[in-house]
Prior knowledge:
Translation Initiation Factor IF3; 4 strands
Amino acid sequence: MKVNKSLPGFTESQFMTQIQADEKIQTNECTYLVKERSYEAPVGTTPRNELKRAAKGIDEWVQIDGGNAYVLTSYKWVRVDKKGTTQLEVNFHTMNCN
């Protein structure tokens, strides 16, 4: 839940819940550009830093896809070494909205 509340504050792109996105698709206010994008944020020293890095990656993909919004579909912290270092992986849809 903390990710869903914190991540949108770090992105420049518009964050939408799946319900909001579905409503905007039905009213032709938005279109999906790419579904199920995946991004692994570079390892950060704190969860906050990893969230910021994930936000930067999301914004980059939204821009590359020609959009201005995204829907976070899932996330997980993945252990990358025996020391317990983690890396945040986010999955999302990119969208373009009027």
